[in-house]
Write a structure and sequence with these properties.
mainly alpha; 76% helix
Length: 365
């Protein structure tokens, strides 16, 4: 029996070329806007981004840290008896004694405001991504892109997808907490005193196995919902649960085909990720070198507050250009992966084919 996951790779490439080429600026820019919110095109497992710790001058190796060579060279009484009394000078007119506290409080409020804004933007991004899934899928079905129209047509679907993904995350988190509680009470006797390096090391194999099972199962359900159920919702007006019901029936009838898709989808995503990384590095060099040199030149030319502001503006423009180019790079890659999934789905079960016209056109050629 032929594996559709193998046969449909070339067809996915042809479908991508038929939609995106010859290049039309409006199509690519609108697709880049949509793909920016999607962030990927295949099944894939969730990527966990690790933020590195950046040490500053105030860190452990800085002047105020334990590794510093700085020390008070004279007794405190000597310092307090210096001419002019440095301690009293802080309270002289023109230097408010509360200024440092007010500055620290203001800086703290600014930090919290920035963190709050970042969280709000991340939430808005995550919510909008559910609606953009349907905008992207409808564009691939119609082979034209109308962001506002497709968004309005699939508001209900976007809400249902968001609630399903939210419930999925809560369920998997709940399972993880239940397993963790069971281990705590059964293996550790429910005593916090039994939690230590030796017990954690002894249970590390169990923790790794449980985490791997939860992560893989969550990634498969999340990914199959995105690449299979969303097209069913878009093309056939199914709900999330009814779409999953149809998909589950098809998976029971053709498990080999879906396992083959899962394997080749991961392989293709790795290849797509490598291509994306290479093109991203090239884009970084092409964009950031001229913008970085321009910002540095402005700062050297002015060497004042205006120079810092001008350099910052140029740097932000460079970052914006880089984001646009990065989104444009993702357009054909994401399009290919989504067409690939829909072609496999339709070949496995013709009744669930979301792109019959696309399929017939590319194969007729």
């Amino acid at each position: 029996m032929a594996l559709h996951a193998v046969d449909d790779i070339d067809d996915a490439i042809d479908a991508t070329k038929s939609f995106l080429f010859p290049i039309e600026k409006g199509t690519w820019l609108r697709m880049a806007f949509v793909v920016f919110f999607i962030g990927g095109g295949g099944v894939g497992l969730n990527n966990v981004q690790t933020l590195g710790n950046f040490g500053g001058n105030g860190g452990p190796s800085g002047p105020s840290g334990p590794g510093s060579d700085f020390q008070l060279a004279a007794p405190l009484e000597t310092v307090m008896s210096l001419p002019g009394n440095l301690a009293l000078q802080v309270s002289e007119p023109g230097v408010p004694s509360g200024a440092p506290d007010e500055l620290l409080a203001g800086a703290g409020l600014l930090v919290f405001a920035v963190i709050g804004l970042f969280i709000l933007l991340a939430l808005a991004y995550g919510i909008l991504s559910n609606f953009m899934e349907f905008v992207l899928t409808q564009a691939l079905i119609d082979r034209e892109i109308h962001v506002r129209r497709y968004f309005n047509e699939h508001v209900g679907n976007g809400i249902r997808l968001f609630l399903f993904r939210l419930a999925l995350g809560v369920i998997w988190l709940g399972v993880a907490l239940v397993i963790g509680a069971a281990v705590f009470f059964l293996a550790l006797g429910g005593e916090a005193a039994n939690v230590g390096a030796s017990s954690v090391l002894a249970l590390s194999g169990l923790f790794i196995a449980v985490f791997a099972v939860l992560a893989i199962s969550y990634g498969i359900v999340f990914g199959f919902t995105t690449v299979f159920v969303v097209p069913l919702m878009t093309a056939d007006d199914d709900g999330v649960l009814s779409g999953w019901s149809r998909l589950w029936g098809s998976m029971k009838n053709a498990p080999k085909q879906y396992l083959a898709y899962l394997f080749f989808s991961i392989v293709l995503q790795i290849g797509v990720g490598i291509i994306s990384a290479i093109l991203g590095i090239v884009a970084l060099l092409v964009v950031m070198i001229p913008f970085g040199l321009g910002a540095f030149a402005l700062y050297l030319a002015l060497q004042n507050t205006a120079g810092i502001v001008a350099a910052g503006v140029v740097g932000l423009l460079g970052l914006l250009v880089l984001l646009v180019i990065s989104a444009l790079i993702q357009v054909p890659l994401t399009t290919f992966l989504r067409y690939y999934a829909m072609l496999v789905l339709g070949d496995i079960d013709a009744d669930m084919d979301p792109i019959p016209e696309v399929r017939s056109d590319i194969r007729a050629e």
